[in-house]
Amino acid sequence: MLKKKSFKGILMLSMLAVLLFAAACGNNANGGNTNNETGNATNSTTNAPTEETVKLSGEVKVDGSSTVFPLTEAAAEEFNKEHPDVRVPVGVSGTGGGFKQFCAGELAIADASRPIKDEEAAVCKEAGIEYTELSVAFDGLSVVVSKENDFVDHLTVEELNKIFMTGSTVKTWKDVRDTWPAENILFFSPGADSGTYDYFNEAILDKAGIRNDTAITFSEDDNALVQGVSGSKYGIGYFGFAYYEENQDKLKVVPVDSGTGAITPTYDTIKDGSYAPLSRPLFIYVSNKELERPEVKEFVKYYINNIGPLAGEVGYVALPDEQYATEAAKIQ
């Protein structure tokens, strides 16, 4: 009897242990599922792409005006600090050279120191290149002579016309003003592909064209013009205000009289337009197709939103804040 009872007791204890073990396994299984679901949710949240984790890369190719070059270069350098994987090479082939590449679909952005010409716009249209024009800053085209020149105090528009117009017979400074020395003038000018050339030709020469003889040196490189004028006591040239600002230790800027008195280019006279007729807006032209690329759109947005403060740093005059807001709206 004792053996039977002991066997039954052992059997019942065994069955109870099995039941307890099964219950424990069931609870662990449910707990495991809960943990896995939580883990999956956590991983899903962690791996989801966010705006902060998206990195831009690629290339934003720019070329064109040597005058606009310092602005675009400054914007590119600052942009690259935030987006180091985006390359923004900036060329200097002149406004006309930039538009040729732009309308051939070779550029994302064309730098321009004048508005696009009708014939250039027609080439772009024929090629299916749609674009957005954005104003970025003001410039005052500056007439300069060597620091050693101690007699030129100002020039009138008529005298500038006489000096630079095609077919001019002016050879010496005395030919310009009787009281000046009979020393041969060396002339320096941006090349025909430059927007600065076009602007000077229009504003000063009424589109008559710039003289082209052995006494004049043309260059698309404004730094070469700076060197030419600064190294020639009797030289004269013209280029963007920023290049004068950068080299005022060796150049003398010439006030220009357009009929209301001689005005020197400064930040204030350029911005308020009193430095006439040589105050001008500067532009970038952006391909609308290229704007669909995120790296291009972000660069252009950065450019417009930040170029105001940068303009003064590189020798140009910022647009009013409300105009930058208008330009930014065009990008959207």
What does this structure look like?
This protein is an alpha/beta fold and about 325 residues long. It folds into two domains: about 60-140 and about 280-330, D-Maltodextrin-Binding Protein, domain 2 (3-Layer(aba) Sandwich), CATH 3.40.190; about 140-275, D-Maltodextrin-Binding Protein, domain 2 (3-Layer(aba) Sandwich), CATH 3.40.190.10. About 45% of the residues lie in helices and about 15% in strands. It is built from eleven helices and 14 strands. The strands form four sheets. The protein has a five-stranded mixed beta sheet. The protein has a four-stranded mixed beta sheet with strand order 2-4-14-5. Helix 3 (about 95-105) packs parallel to helix 4. The longest helix is centred in the N-terminal third of the chain and has 46 residues, at about 1-45. The radius of gyration is 35 Å and the shape is elongated. The chain starts with a helix and ends with a helix. Mean pLDDT is about 85; it is low at about 1-55.
Summary tags:
single chain, 332 residues, alpha/beta, D-Maltodextrin-Binding Protein, domain 2, 2 domains, 4-stranded mixed β-sheet, 11 helices, elongated
Brief overview:
With 332 residues, this protein is α/β, with parallel strands linked by helices.
| SS-derived structural category | alpha/beta
The main pleated sheet reads as: 5 strands, mixed
CATH arch. level architecture of the largest domain: 3-Layer(aba) Sandwich
The CATH homologous superfamily of the largest domain: Periplasmic binding protein-like II
Helix content: 40-55%
Q: How far apart lie the N and C ends?
A: 96 Å
Computed over alpha carbons, the radius of gyration is: 35 Å
Please, how many helices? 11
User: Would you identify the regions where 5 or more consecutive residues have pLDDT less than 50?
Assistant: 1-53
Instruction: Sum up the overall morphology in one term.
Output: elongated
| Mean pLDDT metric | 87
User: Strand tally, please?
Assistant: 14
Major sheet: arrangement of strands:
9-8-10-6-11
Quickly name the level 1 CATH class of the largest domain.
Alpha Beta
Written as H for each helix and E for each strand, in order along the chain, the element string is HEEHEHEHEEEHEHEHEHEEEHEHH
Proportion of residues in extended strands: 15-25%
> What fold name stands as the CATH topology of the largest domain?
D-Maltodextrin-Binding Protein, domain 2
- The overall number of domains is 2
